[in-house]
Write the structure tokens for this entry.
Amino acid sequence: MPVFTAYFKVVRAAKVPLLLNLGIFLLLAVLLSGAASEQEAQFFAASKIPFALINEDEEGALARGLAEFLAEKGRQVPLAAERETLQDALFFRTVEYIAVIPRHFSERFLAGENPRIEKVIVPDSTSSYYVDQQINKFLNTALLYHLADQALSEDEIIELVQEDLKQETKVEILTFGEVDNFETDYHFYFRYAAYVLLSVIIAGISTVMISFNKPDLYLRNLSAPTSIRRVNGALLAGHLLFALAIWLLLLFLAAALYRGRLLNSGLMGFFSLNTLAFTFVCASIGFAVGGLVKNHDTMVGAVQVIALGLNFLGGVFVPQAVLGRSVLAVAKFLPSFWFVRANDLIGGLGSINKDAVKPIYESIFLQLGFAAAIFAAVLLFRKGKRKSHLA
């Protein structure tokens, strides 16, 4: 009990920086989850590609109509028709696409000569395909009207083409099953909760461990009547209680923010289990870091490196779907990878059945395995360290 009481005295003494860090990280998690979910909701919105257009056929109605159409679909950047200016614009990514409409383009196009629009693009740019598509769509539609009725003037063709191309298709993302939860705001909230858990729990536990590992206090505990096993047990209990308090706070905030949408989704239990497993992982890492660092400054640096490293490689900040194969091969040896994998599987549940939840439980058990292995390794290290002090 004395060790357990001393544990929370240290926590209370450091409550101001811990609460400040917790508040900052929670705010970041909420903001990032909101921004990410909004971005995903607009996934199929047309992109405004920055482009430049050099129209050498200013008298041609077809060329003018094409220029107006592209300006509506993209973000036109006015540039002088000078080689150096255009090269600089591409180099600095001011534009990603430069189109040059040659002289007499409109006349030659309607005469069936198939004149070419010259283009210069950023190397390996995928956005150029979008601009090509818009140009082809406009010209193909104009050609259809011209072939259907060659008595139509250029202005009449442009008017008909513009009327047709105003029609847009509304795209909706549908999932099928009992629940429809994929890529909701609370799905992103629980993903970014990994950053909060890692940063706050590691910092809190390390702060306590630094105090208990001070040479005078450490040697006093070795010579005290209380066995070192009981001291370690009390420390572990304190670590777990502190970590569970942070976990409960995250769940409470999630329930307060998303209320019925989360609670009625049928997924709150899965999200809770997954974050609980990762909470134990964070506690074990904090236990390890606290046993290695000697002062607060070193601890802060270690926390940032570990938290950011695990979150980037694990797929918290960068979705696992866009990570390269080599990165994923390394990430599979990190607990954060399995946390994100479980979180994404939970968010994408269409129906809750044995086959659907099996990979979720596998990811959760793997996280618990990481936590147990780290705790065991740290206890063995502390045992060897104690023997060296007694020798």
